[in-house]
């Protein structure tokens, strides 16, 4: 089904389309559709006025105009229109979405805004419930995350977090849209690693010149363990020589089929204590369906190898609402994860990204996806089970096109929250990002703004133009007066 959206304020089209997708995860277009939602926005005295028409329904929403300053006015206008449409669609559909009218990636940001304004955590959560119609359950989740992040959210002056990207995978998962490529014949790996080493050295020297030091480092991808043990050792040696003294190091081993004793030893011998072993599911049938070239037994083997190698912190990722899976299958995955007793667990809601194979299957109705209420049951079961075993939510983010309009949540035992994840997701830490497709995000604290310097996504172009990637970062970070 396609919905046609008409509005006399084109700048609001994207925001209004996001609200429609909360209720109807479908295509929204300006020029065609199976039925039309029409918006007429304007001003009535001291209020924003938004009229909406859909099917036989009509709704008018008035919201006070109080903001001062261009950015504040723009945000107030956007929120007023979104709220009006949300209320209409809630009436038409009979649904009460758990995250209310929120469509952004970081709902914790709104909670922190209220805390900075002087609210208590309880008052801030109540504001989200009343202003944005967030459910009591999700507002409580945000309060728990705020508690876990105390003392970990901010970065000392002069420090940054480091990301190193390895854009290769053994195979491409059906849900993936990341900037990565299958290993294939491996011809690009060595040229890529040479270019990456060049970027690491140059940026390490640049940061030392500026008097900046690393706080937390994260090697992700892709799948870093798609490299050989010798290649992994080489990248880590380069990184740790250029950026010494990190308080935390993580390597995203990820795919169990890529994990070997030699690779784990190479990682652990270089002081890395946190590694990720990601089953996604313990159903072999589902693993085949989503293009993961490993079995549940491979995950058990990889986890045992990581423990034997001496890793004090193992994280595991699982995905709720994978195609063909129901609550009993997801329950079995969570129970198996808990039996392994990792230090942290990340629970994802399936996000069907436009450039993924699953999106194509959704369009052609070739896959069997869990309905929203089933996805919500899975997420609730995971949260309750993890809490019973001493895991607490410590970071959260949302994506477009997520199953059930839900969220991704990282859980950890006390003392095992990942600093890099908190700083990156909350955007409270400057992130120096190296490698193809990596995006440096630099915080300018005095001006309360964030600027980005993206690296080229295409691996061959990155190799050819790596010096330019360094120059982009120098131009960005050199403007920070710290």
TrEMBL record:
Gene Ontology cellular-component terms listed: cytoplasm
Domain of life of the source: Bacteria
A GO MF label: metal ion binding
Residues of the signal peptide: none
Keyword terms, alphabetized: Iron, Iron-sulfur, Metal-binding, Oxidoreductase, S-adenosyl-L-methionine
E.C. number(s) listed in UniProt: 1.3.98.3
Domain named Radical SAM core: residues: 154-389
Coiled coil segments of this chain: none
Gene3D superfamilies: Aldolase class I
GO terms (BP aspect): porphyrin-containing compound biosynthetic process
SMART domains: Elp3
Protein name: Coproporphyrinogen dehydrogenase HemZ
Organism: Candidatus Ornithocaccomicrobium faecavium
């Amino acid at each position: 089904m396609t919905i046609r959206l008409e509005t006399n304020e084109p700048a609001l089209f994207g925001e209004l389309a996001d609200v429609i997708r909360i209720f109807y995860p479908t295509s929204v277009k300006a020029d065609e559709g199976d039925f039309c939602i029409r918006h007429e926005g304007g001003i009535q005295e001291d209020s924003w006025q938004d009229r909406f028409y859909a099917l036989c329904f009509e709704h008018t929403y008035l919201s006070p105009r109080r903001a001062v300053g261009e950015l504040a006015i723009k945000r107030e206008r956007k929120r007023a229109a979104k709220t009006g449409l949300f209320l209409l669609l809630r009436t038409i559909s009979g649904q009460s979405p758990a995250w209310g009218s929120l469509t952004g990636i970081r709902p914790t940001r709104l909670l922190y805004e209220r805390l900075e304004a002087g609210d208590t955590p309880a008052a801030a959560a109540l504001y989200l419930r009343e202003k944005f119609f967030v459910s009591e359950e999700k507002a409580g989740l945000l309060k728990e995350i705020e508690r876990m992040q105390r003392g970990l959210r901010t970065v000392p002056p002069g420090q940054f977090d480091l990301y190193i990207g390895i854009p290769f995978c053994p195979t491409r998962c059906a849900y993936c849209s990341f900037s990565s490529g299958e290993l294939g014949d491996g011809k690009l790996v060595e040229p890529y690693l040479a270019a990456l080493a060049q970027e690491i050295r140059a940026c390490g020297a640049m940061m030392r010149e500026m008097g900046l030091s690393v706080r937390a480092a994260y090697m992700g991808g892709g799948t870093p363990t798609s490299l050989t043990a010798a290649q992994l050792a080489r990248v880590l040696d380069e990184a740790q020589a250029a950026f010494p003294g990190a308080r935390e190091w993580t390597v995203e081993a990820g795919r169990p089929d890529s994990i070997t004793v030699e690779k784990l030893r190479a990682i652990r011998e270089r002081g890395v204590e946190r590694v990720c072993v990601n089953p996604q599911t313990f159903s072999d049938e589902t693993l085949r369906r989503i293009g993961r070239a490993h079995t549940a037994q491979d995950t058990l083997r990889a986890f045992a190898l990581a423990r034997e190698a001496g890793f004090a912190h193992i994280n595991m990722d699982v995905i709720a609402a994978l195609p063909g899976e129901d609550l009993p299958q997801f329950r079995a995955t969570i129970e198996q994860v808990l039996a392994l007793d990792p230090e942290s667990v990340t629970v994802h809601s399936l996000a069907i990204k436009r450039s993924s194979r699953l999106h194509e299957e959704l369009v052609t109705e070739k896959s069997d996806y869990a309905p929203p209420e089933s996805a919500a049951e899975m997420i609730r079961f995971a949260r309750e089970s993890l809490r019973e075993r001493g895991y607490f939510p410590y970071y959260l983010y949302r994506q477009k096109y997520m199953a059930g309009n839900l969220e991704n949540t990282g859980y950890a035992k006390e003392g095992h929250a990942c600093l890099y994840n908190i700083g990156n997701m909350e955007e409270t830490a400057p992130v120096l990002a190296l490698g193809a497709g990596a995006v440096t995000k630099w915080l300018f604290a005095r001006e309360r703004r964030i600027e980005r310097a993206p690296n080229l996504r295409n691996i061959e172009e990155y190799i050819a133009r790596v010096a330019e990637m360094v120059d982009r970062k120098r131009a960005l970070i050199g403007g920070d007066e710290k």
